[in-house]
Write a structure and sequence with these properties.
alpha/beta, Rossmann fold, globular, single chain, 7-stranded parallel beta sheet, 16 helices, 373 residues
């Protein structure tokens, strides 16, 4: 799919707002295509260097033009502080791009709306229909503020239409995770070296990530999740998110991790190398639900609900009860050869790896039509 050049975008005219690991990963392909037109605004929502700078470096993302430090604050404080800080850096911007459902994205969307700057939402239309999730409120608000909603799948398009959005504001693009992952995934030799570094054999371990409030902000729930991971028959590697580290310490749950191999949070390249080689992933992450569909890896999603139903029943199993994890893991591990073979023949529901090209053309068309109207 070729990228057709339309109007010449002014340097630093497209403000791209981000602040977390998933945003960095999924915005990188579009930022690369837009080149000098981009003005990067980093909110610092993920203030751990491993979750921010190292991942940006892995993906070749330039240093941010502006930083707004909101890490470690409450949700309301993050959104308010980010809104004030972002608005300060939007002078002369022709457009604002945000991704997903974070507090940073919502603040960027409100700032764009308040200044009457066209807003473009990457990964629009995702819905869990679970109002207990703060992210659900964020993504709905952003979609309804956006001038253009870039929806990954037909299901996401349907969600937006059901909410009464004008079809002219919706474009199905696919998800940029497909191209971001393909670009950075280590080759076989490098993956083997990564496995060896952690003393793990290919398909001989489980990779887990746990960080969402529903799992870590309750001592009882976090204990159940950690004990369930410890009961899995294969070795479990758990890269620790800063939020999880803090909760384990405050709840005194260190002993619940005795049966788990824990490591500090990982760079994206190393993480993908491990994910591509595991027998099974167990996670509450949204992004991993997409990544396993590209890598053809089975996943247990430890959550009440998911905004990515496209992978449930194929690549993923949704479990709200942590007590069911060991039994479900055993079923997957015992049948992993047949399961891996079946998954290899399934296409990812998140597109063909050209999402960022569609977004770039969409943005240019919008700005061209605005300048001539």
């Amino acid at each position: 799919m070729g990228v057709r050049v339309m109007s010449q975008l002014r340097p630093k005219s497209i403000a791209v707002v981000y602040g977390t690991r998933p945003e960095i990963i999924k915005l990188a392909p579009l930022v690369d295509l837009l080149g000098p037109a981009v003005r990067l605004i980093h909110t610092g929502q993920h203030f751990d260097a491993e979750l921010s700078e190292s991942i940006a470096a892995d993906l070749g993302l330039p240093a941010a033009d502006h930083r707004v430090e909101i890490g470690g604050k409450s949700r309301a404080s993050q959104i308010g502080s980010a809104l004030i800080g972002i608005e300060r850096h939007l002078a002369d911007a022709s457009a604002v791009v945000v991704q997903g459902d974070t507090n940073s994205s919502l603040a960027g969307a409100i700032a764009a709306n308040s200044l009457e700057i066209p807003l473009f939402h990457v990964e629009a239309g995702l819905r869990s229909f679970d109002r207990r999730m703060p992210e659900e409120h964020n993504r709905v608000l952003i979609d309804h503020l956006a001038d253009v909603c870039w929806a990954p799948t037909q299901g996401n398009v349907k969600n937006l239409l059901n909410e009464g959005l004008d079809p002219k504001r919706i474009e199905q693009t696919g998800n940029t995770i497909v191209e971001a992952l393909t670009r950075i995934l280590p080759g076989r030799e490098e993956r083997e070296a990564i496995h060896a570094r952690y003393g793990l054999g290919e398909r001989g371990f489980v990779l887990a990530t746990i960080h969402r409030p529903e799992n870590v902000d309750s001592a009882e729930m976090l204990r159940e999740v950690l004990e369930a991971l410890s009961a899995i028959s294969l070795p479990v590697l758990l890269p620790l998110h800063p939020r999880t580290v803090a909760r384990v310490s405050s709840y005194g749950l260190e002993s619940s991790m005795d049966g788990i191999r824990t490591v500090p949070s990982l760079g994206y390249r190393d993480f993908l190398g491990l994910l591509a080689g595991c027998a099974l992933a167990v996670s509450d992450s949204g992004g991993i639900q997409e990544e396993v569909s590209v890598l053809k890896i089975p996943l247990i999603v430890v959550r009440r609900s998911t905004e990515r139903p496209e992978v449930v029943g194929t690549f993923a199993t949704l479990l709200s009860d942590p007590g069911q994890i060991p039994m479900e893991a055993k079923k997957i591990i015992d049948s992993r050869e047949q399961l891996m073979t079946r998954l290899q023949h399934l296409s990812s529901p998140f597109g063909d790896g050209h999402a960022s090209e569609r977004m770039q053309l969409s943005l240019r068309r919008f700005l061209d039509s605005s300048s001539t109207s």
